[in-house]
Amino acid sequence: MMSRRAWLGLAALPRPVAAQGGLEALFAPRARLWPRWSGHDEAATHSVDHAPWTGFLRRYRRPGADGIARVDYAGVTPADRQALEAWLSGLAATRVTALRRDEQFCFWVNLYNGLTMRTVLHAPGVASIRDINLSGGIFLRGPWDAQVVTVEGEALTLNDIEHRILRPIWREPRVHYVVNCASLGCPDLPEEALTPARREAMLAAAARAYVAHPRGVTVRPDGLLLSAIYNWFAADFEPDGGVVPHLLRHAGPAQAAAIRTAPGIAGYAYDWALNRAAG
Length: 279
What we know:
Layout: E1 15-16, H1 17-21, H2 23-27, H3 51-60, E2 61-62, E3 70-71, H4 78-92, H5 101-121, E4 147-151, E5 154-157, H6 158-170, H7 199-212, E6 217-220, E7 223-227, H8 229-232, H9 243-250, H10 253-261, E8 265-269
Parallel strand pairs: 7-8
Antiparallel strand pairs: 1-8, 2-3, 4-5, 6-7
Helix pairs in contact: 4-5, 5-6, 9-10
């Protein structure tokens, strides 16, 4: 299955809907459940400790003046690299199918983001995560199809976590706002680890922030210029009535009024440049 963000960079530049709607939608990964991960235990009392990940984010995540959060990859110390590895190893040793559903959701989101962070740290100097070609093959650019972690004896890829676990089990459109692909076009890396207590507030805030930012939604005279995420995964927004109703749900009053008057969707765009902090 072609990676979420690897199909030849087709969405790198804005283009008319007609040009994008066919080819990109064809290759965008579908949400296909891996039944192995359907188990859960709502009576469980165990909580996963994500505090090390929160500490890492607070040290290296950098809010930008342009509204895009970046990461000081070059500044990560050897000690913090080791701490990141130790936390990821702890997650890998967790029996995730014995957790409550809310714990599982946070587990998989934080694991995905932590693994993406580690992947970029292991490839210093890259201009884009798509340049980290771990998947193999000419047409599969990027790291998303490489097996990068083993949980409960199963080797997993980033694509497995996103498209075979998170999307099909929870069917939560806002998951796209909290899994981060280390690119400027992507919704920001969360400022702290997701936890069950903060999950709803963080999902809501992340959705509002991305919809409000030009890389998510730009209202133009000819229509809406949207993030390609809304094209690649249009089906995921159907629970909200489709992409535009979803945007209206999370837009502020002024932006919602502008969206309602737009003549339609004019195109999609996505910036694959690495979310590297300057300096």
